[in-house]
Amino acid sequence: MKKWFILLLTLCVALSSLAPFALSEADSTITLTILHTNDTHGSGISASTESMIRFSQIPAMKDVFENVVLVDAGDFSAGTVYASLTNGLATINAMRLLEYDAVVLGNHEFTANRSMFIDALTEEASEQTVGEPVALVNANVTGDEQLESLPEYIIIEREGVKIGIFGVTTPSTVITASPSACEGLTFENVSAASQRCVDALNAEGAQVIICLAHLGYDTGDQGADGITSNAIAANVEGIDVIIDGHAHQTLMGADAIRIDDTLIVSTGTAMANVGWVELCVDANTHEVLSSESASISAADALNFYAEDDVVHAYLDGVVNQVDTEAGEVFANISMGLYGGNYTNGDITASIARRGETNANSMMADAKLAAAKEFFAGSEYEDLPIVALLCGGSCRSSIAAGDVAYSDVMSLFLSGGMGSSGLYVKTTGAVLWEAIEWGLSALTDQNPETGEIYANGSYHGRFPNLAGVSYVYDIRNEPSTPIDYTSDTYAMGSRLVSVTLDDGTEITPDSDLELVMCISSYELEGGDGYYCFAAAEEAGLLTEIGEATVTSLEATTQYMAQLYAETGDVYYPLNSSRVTVIGDYSADSFKSTVTVVDAENAVLGGIDVDLYVNYGEADGIEWELVGSYTTDASGSFAVQLRNGPQETRVEANGISSDIKYVDNYAGLINTTLTLNS
């Protein structure tokens, strides 16, 4: 009884936010509800938290609303350890159990597993699948028999209203997905494909038209070529609602976009929300009178929507199986490894797609270590070896503390844990061009905070490297592609210097031979790295081997070795292998020190000494610069100068480093653990 009271209460609240006609003209109108998700990236499988909705809560949402249509705008197959270790089947089966009405493929579905994804969604239940088949709509991708067999659109009915649903996928998939998986495919202009579907649906009597668009919404130049949802809304007549994906933007309620008569909505990413659009339709003419949008947040879902028993049981089975296989702890880290957006105090640091992060640096170092082991004793042993890891390769983080295999798996959100690096012999000039291209999506820098901005959703190319450092000027011109699918571009002028770890300077025309570890994705032009294919064609790049370990194996082995040698896998937030020249310079940074006991309970009233060694004299010259007493929260705060230094805090004969980060303007949290 309590459950239904809460659900009815939620419905009343929802209805109260709509236009008055929804109640006063109930007899003459029909209410349709579109429940929608996008860019779930494998989320929604593990237990619900205040930051994530679980798939098993959606049936209760469906019960609350009238005439529900449930759809998804793509990127569902990979992104968490639960999705990756089940090859995407965990999410697909959840969608089948929930009886999604329609789904479109996102760019992350264009992998070697694409055929399996399609079959698992659309075919009758098998040994691998449960529930009912889901309609997969594809209006603009051709060149593959299986893709071409999918319907461009479907028509479903709710209370006699014919609802047409079609789907389009971004043409940028050719550089944001696996290039080999896109070989031979043609991505039709989405505006042209959309107008064709709208015309066909109108001819078949559809009265409400929904577009599932894995495109992204953009207010800048990206809309000019018809790639984005706003371009479709502006160029195509007759679409009532566009369910957008790809850009990870939250467009609901007051943030939803209206262009002419088209409403554009999106839920962000990772099941932080389930969106809903309520359409008021004339009961006689079936004309759409109005549309309103809102969302159900993860916090609200946790409080108001009970889990469905059947879906709950399935998801728990997946979680238990994966946790058993991947939950073994093999290391402990004193500082978190950050690969995506993260907040430290009141400062949100740049994501890996806009700058260096310690998770990406660690993963690049792991690739380099595997490469050096591979070439030991070979004819290439004495050549410089470098490793490239694109910013989009890692979009997760590992918190400080115990590290399990599942934590490392979560770093590989794109499903790249099973891939192996390729080794190529090339020149310094190719390395220079690759780095220059990797910086091309960056736009400018905030002079007050130092934050680097990037253009749109196409910046997974940011170059994280091991074995080499570089300096660039954000104010200079970037490399400029002809268009999003072009294999040529004008070289930029951002790079100032490139230096190998042995001190060798690389120039734009360097003929120095070196070995690079890259992925097949990059070699094939992924993220627009066409320079590698061009270099190969010109005889400046030769494949000389393939890694014998996967990316996951290389990373876990590297972390385990570091932990065995040092008792930690410590990486500073910024290792200074990437230096930015711009209009920003920090002269100090803050640190909050927290003292805890062996059980991680905070300790107030502890006297702590602060020491700094500025490295201005030979040897270790520690200087006592202050003494502090922890407050009731076990903490105290200090402000330190920016500049090379070693800093430590000490209490009861036990010390801990404050992790210095060059030119970091944020708050660096440090924990001092006392054994007694």
Write the layout of secondary structure elements.
Blueprint: H1 2-16, H2 21-24, E1 29-37, H3 58-64, E2 68-72, H4 81-84, H5 89-98, E3 102-103, H6 114-122, E4 141-142, H7 145-148, E5 153-158, E6 161-169, H8 173-176, E7 186-187, H9 190-203, E8 208-214, H10 229-235, E9 241-245, E10 250-251, E11 257-259, E12 262-267, E13 273-282, E14 288-297, H11 298-304, H12 309-326, E15 329-333, E16 342-344, E17 347-349, H13 358-375, E18 385-390, E19 401-404, H14 405-411, E20 420-427, H15 428-438, E21 442-445, E22 452-454, E23 463-466, E24 468-473, E25 480-481, E26 489-490, E27 495-500, E28 505-506, E29 513-518, H16 520-523, H17 530-537, E30 542-550, H18 551-566, E31 578-581, E32 588-596, E33 607-613, E34 623-629, E35 635-641, E36 646-651, E37 654-658, E38 667-673
Parallel strand pairs: 1-2, 2-3, 6-8, 8-9, 9-12, 18-29, 24-31, 32-38
Antiparallel strand pairs: 1-13, 4-7, 5-6, 10-12, 11-12, 13-14, 15-19, 16-17, 18-23, 20-29, 20-30, 21-22, 24-27, 25-26, 27-28, 32-35, 33-34, 33-36, 36-37
Helix pairs in contact: 1-3, 5-12, 13-18
Summarize the model shown.
By secondary structure, the protein is an alpha+beta fold. Helices cover 25% and strands 30% of the residues.
